[in-house]
Design a protein that fits this description.
The structure is a single chain. The chain is α+β, with helices and mostly antiparallel strands and 263 residues long. 46% of the residues are buried. The protein is globular, with a radius of gyration of 17 Å. 32% of the residues lie in helices and 27% in strands. It starts with a helix and ends in a 6-residue tail after the last helix. The protein has helices at residues 3-20, 40-56, 87-92, 156-161, 170-176, 186-194, 208-211, 214-220, 247-257; strands at residues 28-33, 36-39, 61-64, 78-85, 98-105, 108-116, 121-126, 131-133, 136-137, 150-152, 179-181, 200-206, 224-226, 239-244. The model has no long low-confidence stretch (mean pLDDT 93). Bound molecules: D-MYO-inositol-1-phosphate (IPD) and calcium ion (CA) (2 copies). D-MYO-inositol-1-phosphate binds at residues 65, 82, 84-87, 154-155, 184-186, 205-206, 210. One calcium ion (CA) is lined by residues 42, 65, 82, 84-85, 87.
């Protein structure tokens, strides 16, 4: 079995299990604080994904949210997995959460899969082969007038009230765009830009497992992603995120609201 087929099978199985999951009160824990949660299902799902990957590809490296990295990034393929992106939504809403699996080789994208679990929508892309939501081809938005853009952010408070370096002008941007929306899952928000439902996505802190699958889907749909200052988004460190439907929209935002022009 190829890596992509394996990943799709594992993500779909993980999603089926999560749809049936029911949370006991004692199965939720705080990590760094009361806004940073983990459940037994985050852990179970990550273990399931890791085991399935390593059974077939024991030499691959895995970077995931809930357990230490296995293997090294110099290895042939590196998998970035977020077993549940949107854990708070999983707990409070039982919707608007995703299983996210991205695979890269020597710094280059191979494929990304993001499953919107409750909607059973699988966003997927292989490098060079376009991006899809189930069987529907995705195309990012071509809108370029600031006042027409819909901006998504996974964390309204941090994005606009505690701006990260390069993001000081985001409040002005928020006032100028058509509207601001928040799902609460970086992966689903980036997929919304890939599908043209959103025109921009801004996050002031995002980790490799949050965005390394969805960024492949976004780029295959014609979108672009950078750090908030316009520089490259690192593959292996947390960073700020500015995603747009087109290079022109990204450059416009950078020119008017900070950073430097994207090259
Ligand atoms: C979080 C979600 C959230 C974002 C956080 C992420 P988690 O992931 O994507 O929307 O604001 O920065 O850490 O903890 O639910 O996997
Ligand atoms: Ca996450
Ligand atoms: Ca997570």
């Amino acid at each position: 079995m190829e890596r992509f087929e394996l990943a799709e099978a594992l993500v779909r199985q993980a999603g089926a299990a999560l749809r049936q999951a029911r949370l006991e009160a004692d199965s939720v824990r705080c990590k760094s604080g009361h806004q940073d949660l983990v459940t037994v299902w985050d852990r179970k799902t990550e273990q399931f994904l890791r085991k399935g990957i390593l059974e077939h590809f024991p030499a691959d490296a895995i970077v995931g949210e809930e357990y230490p990295t296995e293997g090294t990034a110099s290895q042939e393929a590196v998998w970035y997995i977020d077993p549940i992106d949107g854990t708070t939504n999983f707990i409070n809403q039982h919707r608007n959460y995703a299983v996210s699996v991205g695979c890269w080789r020597q710094g280059k994208p191979l494929f990304g899969l993001v499953l919107d679990v409750e909607e059973d929508r699988l966003y997927h892309a292989r490098a060079g082969q376009g991006a899809w939501c189930n069987e529907r081809r995705l195309a990012a938005s071509r809108r370029r007038n600031i006042e027409e853009l819909l901006l998504f952010t996974p964390d309204v408070l941090r994005t606009f009230l505690q701006p990260a370096p390069g993001g000081e002008d985001l409040l002005r941007l928020a006032r100028d765009v058509r509207a601001v929306r928040s799902i609460g899952s970086v992966a689903l928000e980036l997929c919304a830009v890939a599908g043209g439902e959103a025109d921009l996505c801004v996050a002031t802190r995002s980790c490799p497992w949050d965005h390394n699958a969805a960024r492949i889907i976004l780029q295959e749909a014609g979108g672009v992603i950078a750090a908030l200052d316009g520089g490259p988004l690192p593959l292996n460190e947390p960073g700020t995120v500015l995603a747009a439907g087109s290079p022109e929209a990204l450059d416009l935002v950078l020119k008017r609201y900070g950073g430097h022009e994207n090259e």
